[in-house]
Amino acid sequence: MADVEDPGRRTRLFLPKSPTGIAGFDEITDGGLPAGRPSLVCGPPGTGKSLFAVQFLVNGATRYGEPGVFLTFEESREELVSNVRSFGFDIEGIERDGLLLVDALSMEPQVVDTGDFDLEALIVRLGYAVDKLGAKRVAIDNVEALFAGFGKPSLVRSELRRLFRWLKDHEVTTVITGERGEGRLTRHGIEEYLSDCVVVLDDRVVQDVATRRVRVMKYRGSTHGRNEYPFLIGADGFEVLPITSLGLSQDVSSERVSTGVAGLDEMLGGQGVFRGSGVLVSGTSGTGKTTIAASFADAACRRGEKVLFFSFEEAESEIFRNMASVGLDLAGWVQQGLLRFHCERPTTRGLEDHLATMQRLIRDFEPMLVVIDPVTSLARGATPFDVSAMLMRQVYYLKAAGITAVMTVLSADSRTEQTILNISSLVDTFLEVVMLSAFGERNRGLYVLKSRGMAHSNQIREFLLSDRGVDVVPVMIGPEGVLTGSARIAAESAERTTAEELSKESAELVRALERRRESVDAHVATLRADFAAEERLTRRLIEASEQRVEAVNQDRLAQGRRRTARPESDQQ
Amino acid sequence: MSTPTEPVAGETAPAPGGLKLTLFISGASAASARAVRRLRDLCDRYAPPGYELEIVDIYQQPELVVARGVLAVPTLIKELPLPVEVMIGDFTNEPRVLAALGLSRAEATER
User: Fold this and answer.
1) Contact flag A103-B91 (C-beta cutoff 8 Å)
2) What are the distances in angstroms from CA B52 to CA A246, B11, B94?
3) Does A86 touch chain B (CB under 8 A)?
4) Size of interface A-B (CB pairs under 8 A)
5) Residue B72 and residue A127: Cβ atoms within 8 Å?
6) What's the CA gap between A404 and A278, in Å, rounded?
7) N-terminal to C-terminal alpha carbon distance within chain B
8) Interface membership of A118 toward B (CB under 8 Å)
9) How far is A74 from chain B (nearest CA, A)?
10) I want to staple A174 with a disulfide (CB 3.0 to 4.6 A). Which of A5, A38, B53, B86 is the partner?
11) Is the pLDDT of residue B73 over 70?
């Protein structure tokens, strides 16, 4: 092989896979079933083995250009055709295109056994069909019928072994279905001969709710998800939900989106939550969890984003009415096509059905925000582990899709405590609404239990619902602790009174000071006036005095001259 | 179709209500040959004359294998008289074969 240097390529060469086209299954098997080899699909009756087989062939024919042969002992042609038509599989149409051949065999129980025989005719008829179509895929549904029909287990086993050998030699990818037996995978232990790939289907009823699981028990030479994965037989047929197989490598957004409540945005560093993050709103009954969720939805619709609202307790009309009372016009958003509701009683279907339905709706509607109100409703009829596993998958799924998830949780229920613990580590923002009761009142307090990757308030704030809308206001701290409701209002008004008094007092002082300043100023003015008068007088006196000095000097000079003239004149 | 119909000794067409059989075998194996021999022997001894036996080699005529829903070899289908009976095996269990074909040893001994 020329490609040995490339390890990735080499793996593919060694382990070619044949995609089943079944949503999710090819992901958990890293590409599908082993190509050119037989795989066993086993489980109790009614778990979807036949559907798996049919879908494998139909998808092979219609999507991957691989013709297939369906050998069934389970149902007649007519039954098969009509049974799978509801999933949108047109068996007869595909047969006409020469891409599928259905060989429906009835195992006649009245067959008389007269001695030794073998099942060579089974191989011959299969070979005939495979050659006729150039088939690359075969499904045999279900081999237990051969044991029932021929009643010689060891002979049937060895003949099946020969059949599997033949299938391998002819490199057809084969799905063989088998019924689960006591203590082993199939009733007659044929899994011993089907060592390449074994898929186990299961349908468990836990507290009256059925949940379907699929597990890849064995896959020789290939990595595969080893968990049990929920699956669904829905409108599109067999669907596996491999959400736990996703890695933690999703792109994260640093974009922030508003919660729709200004005061709450403020508590979350002023900008709200991260886009694509998981938000959990926990609270006891009647704390307004739905209202908070509806605010998120309203804010998203205001941004022009689509919102999918799953309500498991209230009908759409009830939510409209209730939210209208706090000023949120959700009906308007629904009319604009931005908001879609999916209201359903959680008990009507199993947990996995819900998960699958939710994911399909999400895929179809492509919302930016998803509300699940409340997630704990889904916990009915499921073990806490199931619920947390489901929520984990749901949260991962939404994160991977960059969808913001707002989930509400009813916290008073002790059954859900563990659930909350389990999922709290998954969500990015955890808001808790608590009832604060004091002074004969119960008021809503809201705090941010955690919010990853952002500064957030450590305060309890009061959560107010009124016809003007929803808001979160800072609480008052009194000597008895946090004050809410009328106690807060009373404290606020007491504060207001004090403030008024204080401001009155200071105004008084200001006025007094002003008056004092005025009187000082007046005093200064008087002094200045006195001084000015004195100054004028003094200046006049100085002037007069100087004039007198001048006059004296003049007199003295005049006298002097006179005296000097006399002797001069005497001499002449 | 070149189905080997083998009219039995006497050259008479099978009487209405006579025995009509189809046998599916896998090629010319020793086991197949033994099965054919055993069936012929049984019919010759116990069946009324003029029975019809068609032998189908599954390798030669797989379309007949599909059409008749055959899985095991040898498979013998009693087409007539009705009801249709299906037998699998190499006819070593003689009483069962006779019962399924609606024949009896007593009848044969009378003959």
Assistant:
1) no
2) 67, 11, 19
3) no
4) 93
5) no
6) 6
7) 35
8) yes
9) 14
10) A38
11) yes
Phi, psi of A485 (to 5 degrees): 60, -135
The mean per-residue pLDDT over the stretch A365-376 comes to 86
ipTM for the complex shown: 0.79
Contact A112 B75 (CB under 8 A): no
B 23-62 residues with CB < 8 A to A: 24, 26, 31, 58-59, 62
H helix intervals, A134-261: 144-150, 153-169
Under 8 Å between Cβ of A312 and A377: yes
Residue numbers in A near B91 (CB within 8 A): 114-115
Using CA coordinates, name the residue in chain A closest to B56. Answer: A121
Burial of A526 (0-12, 13-18, 19+ CB in 10 A): exposed
Chain B within 8 Å of A146 (Cβ-Cβ)? Answer: yes
pLDDT of A542 reads: 92
Closest CA to A352 of A224, A239, A235, A246: A239
pLDDT for res A539: 92
Distance from C-alpha of A241 to C-alpha of A91, rounded to nearest angstrom = 26
Check residue A1 and give its pLDDT. Answer: 41
Q: Is the pLDDT of residue A289 over 60?
A: yes
Backbone angles phi, psi at B86, to 5 degrees: -115, 130
pLDDT band at B109 (very low <50, low <70, confident <90, very high): very low
Q: What is the mean pLDDT of residues A459-472?
A: 78
Taking CB atoms and an 8 Å cutoff, what residues of chain B touch A105? 69, 71
To the nearest whole angstrom, how far is the Cα of B76 from the nearest Cα of chain A?
9
Output A207 or A411, whichever has higher pLDDT.
A411
Cβ atoms A367, A402 nearer than 8 A: no
When CB atoms are compared, the residue of B63, B70, B76 closest to A121 is: B70
Among chain A residues, the shortest Cα distance to B66 is held by: A125
Task: Give the mean pLDDT of chain A.
Answer: 79
Rounded Cα distance, A374 and A286, in Å:
12
Residue of chain A with shortest Cα separation from B64: A125
pLDDT of A341 over the 80 cut: yes
pLDDT band for position B64 (50/70/90)?
A: confident
Tell me if B69 and A110 make a contact (CB, 8 A cut-off). Answer: no
Task: Report the pLDDT averaged over residues A141-160.
Answer: 83
| CA angle, residues A149, A151, A156, in degrees to nearest 5 | 85
- Could you give the CA distance from residue A505 to residue A493 in angstroms, rounded to a whole number? 18
CA distance A192 to chain B (A): 23
Pair A344, A382: CB distance under 8 Å:
no
Closest CA to A284 of A117, A149, A420: A420
pLDDT above 50 (res B111): no
Q: How many percent of chain A have pLDDT more than 90?
A: 9
The count of other CB atoms within 10 Å of the CB of residue A312 is 21
Q: How many CB atoms lie within 10 A of CB A112?
A: 18
Per-residue pLDDT, A529: 92
pLDDT at A538: 92
Task: Select from B63, B71, B90 the Cβ nearest to the Cβ of A114.
Answer: B90
- pLDDT tens-digit map of A85-115: 888 888 888 888 888 888 888 776 667 777 8
Q: Which DSSP category does B57 fall into? A: E
Question: CA–CA separation, A375 vs A407, rounded Å?
Answer: 6
Provide the shortest C-alpha distance from residue B79 to chain A (in Å). 14
